[in-house]
Each structure stands twice: as structure tokens, then as C-alpha cells.
TrEMBL record:
It comes from Variovorax rhizosphaerae. This is Alpha/beta fold hydrolase. Gene3D superfamilies: alpha/beta hydrolase. Residues 3-235 form the AB hydrolase-1 domain. It comes from the Bacteria. The keyword Hydrolase applies. InterPro entries: AB_hydrolase_1, AB_hydrolase_fold, AB_hydrolase_sf. Pfam families: Abhydrolase_6.
């Protein structure tokens, strides 16, 4: 499974999920531009993120790959899945979108402008609030500590560039008919991407005549950072989705 992280995090955001799903599933992740080890390499377009993800996909095993994207990573994953469907049908077995916006928004460019004006440090507190809520953001548990450290390690150009790139995302109306079986997941207490914000993704599938190709799961809790908590509810939904669309090798008796 190839996993693409959120703005402000890095490849380690899937460590808890990797451990929770166990050795039966191999989760591959990487630092996207402007994040982690790529902090000095900011993106200037959403297409650059998709190009990088395509290179990561090429390095995965030859068989079908399950693709997962969290927040901005979902937009990148969806565009990669649509692109791959045109050139290599069947290469991507499933798509999972966790707390991911249905399209780019003006608010994303406004966040980028604020970062350019005031720096990353000024953005940490409001970002933590959107991710964990007021009480959760004040905690120093492992998920919060990790998220806070990755945010503080970012540079303004990379953080702002990521928001500007996400603002370019055109949505699902033109790609829903190209996507593999897709699972949308969000949490009831997600302040950044609540359930109603992901509903247009489902509607795009319906308009494309592919209502049977999309499912929607709402977690009871986890906020915007559900992958960091890897709750049993999330892991269970992922396992069901992956197994339902995994070709099992035939056995001879």
C-alpha cells in the first residue's frame, strides 16, 4: 500500500497505522516536497506532487497497489489514480481518501498568504486546533508531539507552497469515472474536513454513474489526524476495503 501524507506531516505519519495493520500489509510512504527530508525542496504546483507520487508508485511491487491519501495526500492520490488508469489500468487496486477535501478552496490560498506574511510559527497553533481540537491540541501525547514537531520543522516556502498547490485541485467531477473502488473516511469530530465536506466526492461518483464504486465511513473520533491514532475502527475499515478488492492467488489441489 502506498500512502501519501497530509500537509505539515511527513512519511512517519503512517508509522502507527503500519504497526496496527501488521505484517500482512506493507505500507510504503515518503516525504513529499517541502516536508521532512524534502523540506528544502518546496513544490510550485500540484502536478509536481503527482509526478513524485508516480515515481514512488513505479518503485512499488509489480502487482496491484492499494493507494491511500490523507488530507492533501488524498487529492494527490486521486489525481495519480486517474492518471494511472489511463496508462496502466488495474495498477491501482483501490483508493482510500482520509479527511481529504473535495476540491481546492480560496481558504487554502489565504492560509498560504498568512504563512508568507507571518511565518510558520504563527500557523502552528491554529493548525493544531484544526487537527486535534482545543483539548487535543493542548496534549503532549505521541500524536500531538509528533505533529507539533513536524510543523515546527517546516519552512515558510514549503508550507505556503503546499497550500497553494492544494488550492489548485479541481475536484472529482472530471475524474470519478477513472478511479478504482474508493473509500472515503473522516471522523465525526474532524474540524478541518468534517463528513459533509467529503460528501461532494460521493456525489461526483453518483453523477458519473458509479455510485457502487464508492463507500463512505465516518469514524466516531480521531479528528483530522485519524492515521496518527490508528484506531481499531479505522484499521478495520481499511482491511475490509483492501481485502474486498485484493486478488487472491489461486491454489492447486
Amino acid at each position: 500500500m502506498l500512502a501519501l501524507h497530509s500537509i505539515g506531516l511527513d512519511a512517519h505519519s503512517f508509522d502507527a497505522l503500519r504497526e496496527a495493520v501488521g505484517p500482512d500489509w506493507r505500507i510504503t510512504s515518503f516525504d513529499q516536497r517541502g516536508h521532512g527530508a524534502q523540506v528544502n525542496r518546496p513544490a510550485t504546483s500540484l502536478e509536481q506532487y503527482v509526478d513524485d507520487a508516480a515515481l514512488a508508485l513505479a518503485e512499488c511491487s509489480d502487482g496491484p497497489v492499494h493507494l491511500l491519501g490523507h488530507s492533501m495526500g488524498g487529492a494527490v492520490a486521486a489525481l495519480l489514480a486517474a492518471r494511472t488508469a489511463c496508462g496502466s489500468p488495474g495498477r491501482i487496486a483501490t483508493l482510500t481518501l482520509i479527511s481529504s477535501p473535495s476540491r481546492g478552496m480560496l481558504g487554502f490560498t489565504e492560509r498560504a498568504a498568512a504563512v508568507r506574511a507571518d511565518g510558520v510559527r504563527a500557523a502552528v497553533a491554529p493548525t493544531m486546533f484544526r487537527w486535534f481540537g482545543e483539548e487535543g491540541a493542548a496534549l503532549d501525547n505521541a500524536p500531538q508531539s509528533y505533529a507539533r514537531s513536524t510543523l515546527n520543522a517546516m519552512q515558510s516556502e514549503g508550507f505556503a507552497g503546499a497550500w497553494e498547490a492544494l488550492a489548485q485541485f479541481p475536484g472529482y467531477d472530471d475524474i470519478a469515472d477513472l478511479l478504482p473502488p474508493t473509500l472515503c473516511i473522516t471522523a465525526a469530530d474532524d474540524l478541518s474536513t468534517p463528513p459533509h465536506a467529503m460528501q461532494p466526492i460521493v456525489e461526483a461518483f453518483k453523477k458519473a454513474g458509479r455510485a457502487d464504486n464508492v463507500a463512505f465511513t465516518t469514524l466516531a473520533s480521531g479528528g483530522h489526524m485519524a492515521p496518527l491514532f490508528a484506531a481499531p475502527e479505522l484499521v478495520g475499515a481499511l482491511r475490509v476495503h483492501w481485502l474486498a478488492h485484493t486478488v487472491q492467488p489461486s491454489s492447486k489441489h
